[in-house]
Amino acid sequence: MNCTHITEAFGLACTHINSGLVYLESPISLSFDGTLIGAYVQDIGQGRVRITDNADTLFHAMTMGVSPNANKAAKLANIAADCHIALSESGELHASCAEKDVPYYMARFIEAASQISQACDAWRPAPISKFEKIVSKALRAGFPKRVRRDYEVQGASGHNLKFQFALDVESGNPQIIQTVSAQDDKPHWLSVYSTLGKMVDLKNAAPQARRLVILESANPQDVGKAASALAESASVLVFKTASQLIEDIRSLAA
Fold this sequence. Notes:
This protein has 254 residues and is of the alpha+beta class. The protein has 8 helices and 13 strands. It is elongated. The relative contact order is 0.09.
């Protein structure tokens, strides 16, 4: 395969690797990290080639926090199949074709990788807020070796609920904690409603569970509204300082 001919014919950047292998790179990027979509094109004889991403697309997705499972794999395989591309169990996007059909299959390959990256982008975990990091540091300093991150428990709905923190998990009755950060001097209301839903579900499943929401300081009137909304399902503290937070949590346990 000749890079000069390929570049002229396809308009893709071509890197010659050896006599039977080239790497084609498109100007289109993966939506979750900006990596340009590309594929290896290998001569497999008798005028045929194999196109593969060497599982790079899904590897990049996993490094960005996307966790694989059977349902996600099935959805991604369907996306690939709709583009006439295969997705192996090991996460490799690939297709085999006649060398003359490479333009068609590369176009479909790029389409499949782009759509898969968009699906994976939607599955990425939300980034940790600055406020959550502040609370995490305070909890670890105030309660050494007693803090568990990403604590999961089943709610009354039957769904697994994930909370940012739990204290004293080994005790059998941990303090389950969720934070709500502020945005534009107001509580982030989407987080307020999401937290409320999880706390209500937990309360219905385990009324005795110790539930705590920590609000980032913001406009007092808006913080008061958020605290009132959450108060029926959990204890609510407004963060002032790290030392005050630890003192307030200890007071709740007293």
